[in-house]
Amino acid sequence: MSYESNPILDKLPKHLKQFIKPQNYEEYTAINQAVWRYVMRKNVDYLSQVAHTSYVDGLKKTGISIDHIPNMYGMNRILKEIGWAAVAVDGFIPPSAFMEFQAYNVLVIASDIRQLENIEYTPAPDIIHEGAGHAPIIANPEYAEYLRRFGEIGCKAISSAKDYELYNAVRHLSIIKEANGTPQDEIDEAEKHIEHLQQNMGEPSEMALIRNLHWWTVEYGLIGTVDNPKIYGAGLLSSIGESAWCMTDKVKKIPYSIEAARTEFDITKPQPQLFVTPDFAFLSQVLEDFANTMAVRTGGLSGIKKLIGSQALGTIELSTGLQISGEFSNVIENDGKPIYIQTTGGTALAYREKELVGHSIAHHKDGFGSPIGKLKGINIAIEDMGPRDLKAYKIYEGEQIALEFEGGITVEGTIITGTRNLMGKIILITFENCTVTHNDQVLFQPEWGLYHMAVGQHIVSAYNGPADLNSFDLITHKVTGSTIKSKKDETRAQLELLYEQIRHFREGKNTTISRNKVFQALKKYHPKDWLLSVELYELAKQDNNLEFQQEILDHLEHIKRDNPKVGHLIDDGLQLADANLVS
């Protein structure tokens, strides 16, 4: 096992464990640690005024330090007190997997950290966003339950085939944007590809809509009143630029409602508007309202059509409780109702999320088809027939019978047996020498073997994924380095060493280091680096070394003139040092 487990992680199914990777804490450099410290000091200083009260309290409860990148398996010892756990994952993971982790009370954390050049914002998931943004708020019980419930509902949302294509394109862009030295034309090409996909998505899928809800709450949510909102969204809590920007009048504040599901977002730009929920409980109310529109609760013809459009593994549940899992390829409809469904490839049948004996993907390796609905001219549905009714209508072992369904589906063959559910209702009838037709179209022939007819008057539910997780091989992910690590040259290694020396000095590990010598080496060999100079200024300020302070300030002014983009970052760092914010 590549990670330290605990009782919460032990409950994760195998297909989620495949995304977990070691954090490899020793790979964080002193520059990485300095980036974490700068962002956290800046955030805590500012967010203590504008974030929901749960944020600052949650930092303490979840074991997140301002000075050190968190060791998430150390975090786990504290998180378990509130019933949660954390794991390192491989950058972007599929949205349904991300949400399913939440359903198991597991926070997924991308263990990479943004480069110094992207200190304010990175398009790639990183530990600042995940650890410092998401983790503190889950210490609030009402919000934690919302997050868990969101995961439970969200992982059942049906995606479209285009969603999968867009996910892969966004993952690729985030990796190359965060990588050092990626040619701009490669980034431009990837961005154009995403733009083209976004403009041609068609009607948004359930996953696209619920992802919008996730974005406007979990990532970019505000709480309180429109006139006096506080921040709770992780995207805002982890962005030192947007957390300030969102509090200005330039960002429109809108009362949160289910309309947020239809509001698109662009991850590459600051958000022009944000939604404000009155409290965390209201988030759950909107989530349930949205869930009422999903196929997992509505089923029907639209549900099966969503599954066909997804071109992915999904499940329908019939009114008898029989669950059919596979890739749905076709539906025959009549009067707005499904009258025959068909899957392609390996299909499994289940009841109450447990595979039926003899109905695995090995038994239905070429797909599964079945009529849905009532028999023509008979008021009582098969599922509602008792043993006497079944015998009266010759739906009985050994009988040669032709069952004609409303809509024109006919099943003709010899009945071998029936399978019943726990309530005694018949859910499956098995035929031999069976022919299934729709008008003149043959849907099943005797030479194909036994025919298993599902019994169900209605499709009551349709959702992403299998009914029984053990029915399918879901281990398809290979863990890779989600960010492209730049090759470390001698100059970079030397800069890391200087950062490490100052870190050791500040922490009291080695107080014999000459800070002046470090500063001279920094000016000579790394004249563009600004963060270490800010850290040196902070130490000089603590020692009240006025001459050294001024020398550093003069150097930082040169950097600001040469690179105005980092001017506000330098000023913010100096302001923190002047305020003597000692963490």
UniProtKB/TrEMBL annotation:
* Named cofactor requirement(s): Fe(2+)
User: What Gene Ontology terms for biological process does this UniProt record contain?
Assistant: aromatic amino acid metabolic process
PANTHER family associated with the record: AROMATIC AMINO ACID HYDROXYLASE, PHENYLALANINE-4-HYDROXYLASE
The name of this protein is Aromatic amino acid hydroxylase
- Domain of life of the organism encoding this protein: Bacteria
Query: SUPFAM superfamilies per the record?
Result: Aromatic aminoacid monoxygenases, catalytic and oligomerization domains (SSF56534)
The UniProt keywords, alphabetically, are: Iron, Metal-binding, Monooxygenase, Oxidoreductase
**Where do the annotations place Fe cation binding?**
H129, H134, E219
Task: Give the protein family.
Answer: Belongs to the biopterin-dependent aromatic amino acid hydroxylase family.
* Record GO terms (molecular function): iron ion binding; oxidoreductase activity, acting on paired donors, with incorporation or reduction of molecular oxygen, reduced pteridine as one donor, and incorporation of one atom of oxygen
- Residue ranges occupied by any Biopterin-dependent aromatic amino acid hydroxylase family profile domain in the UniProt entry: 1-340
Kindly list any coiled-coil regions of this protein. none
One Pfam match, given by its short name, reads Biopterin_H
Instruction: Supply the PROSITE patterns for this chain.
Output: BH4_AAA_HYDROXYL_2
